[in-house]
Sequence to fold (474 residues):
Amino acid sequence: MDEPKIVQTDLGNKDGQNKCPKCGATDISLNTKTGKLRCNFCRHEFEPQKLEGLEKDISNLEGEVLGSGTQDINNDAGDIITLKCSSCGAEVVVDTSESTSARCHWCRNTLSINEQIPNGAVPDTVLPFKLTKAEAKKQIEEFVGKRKFFAHPKFREEFTTDNIMGAYFPYMIVDVNSHAKLAGQGEHEVRRYTVKRGDNTETRYDADLYNVEREFDLSIEGLTVESSMDKLDTSSAKTNNIINSIMPFDTENCVKWDSNYLKGYTSEKRDVNVDQLRPLVQEQAKDVARFAANESLKQYDRGVRWDSQELDIKGQQWKSAYLPVWIYSYLQKKGNKDVLHYVAVNARTKETMGSVPIHMPKLFLMSALLETIAIIIAILFTTYKILADNSKFAWILAITGIVFFIIKYSKYRNKGARHHHETETKKEIRNLRKLDNLVRRKTGLSNSRMSGANNTKVSGNINKNIINTITNQL
Fold:
């Protein structure tokens, strides 16, 4: 592979901080209502600088282009340093030229200047906060309010949004110019009917089987991945997927990095390099390509099984970014174990997701009550043959309590929440070539969907593999 092209995104701005163009003062902050920077000395407002020097037409991308902020992490700190929270272990970026103390946005513990660690690389770009604290508080209150019934009593008593904090999280924004080629088979349903099997009836399907190929050029703009190893880890012990699930951000509105945006907020450092994220970006780009092809596959209502999937990346462009999030956190004491719950709000789009402590005895009791009632009803249905022809469906009622428990637990913990990169990432198909050849008609099929269909599936366990790879490299 050719050496990547490095674009110096910090030219003319070595300290990462703009001065007021009117009076030259450096006391500048963001006005979230206008999106402009405001001088706190003369009150002049001015537009933030746009990031220059990177390719804007993704279809022209060739080779690998890296913003200077994406280069491997170094140990330079200067005024912008990182402090490690002694309470929860989070790493919080602080501008010591503005303040000698700070608080952790996860557990609100006061941070010590003695716990400084290497800061890493300065990002290329930043997406300014748009939502005010008051707007974020309203979003969090509404989210928690819908989950109050089964929430832990201590949480309900202690819940307040007065302590929410704004934080910038590190991401890599990747643009990809690629060529995709997929080959496999698809099925189109032509008939649906029922057949007798003893006392029961079963549904059968007839379908036409096709050989299917799709080949096209694909531009992917703003594919966004976390560049913090902790956030990439979505194991069962964590709820970091909540941060992932509030994406996407409107990254097209990112501006040139300026440390003034950090004023009034905290942030976390990047600790993952481009080389370590390439496998994740490659797999997510394949997901985007596979789902992009679905626009031309609507006739295959039983699905498509891709046997061959190729994505040739002709060019890619990486930018290191800080993206804004409002965080409410709550530390739950469970015996000798502390469990951190939090609610996150995308500070651009208002997308909200979180985890709320559950009062398990109440949830168990309600689920058991529903289960008991459902079993009694199932027995009555079977005994009195209320559903004589479909008696097996009566026993589906017997799992009502179990289903209720799973749904409520999932709603309160949201462990499965995630960003749907495969459909929510901007993309453009060009030069589409289609091939659809009828193979034969299949009859008497028992499944409503084609066996092995994978055109609506995303790559699994990718984050886990990334974490294991990074850990082995450290």
User: Anything to note?
Assistant: Residues 357-413 form one domain. DSSP finds ten helices and 19 strands in the chain.
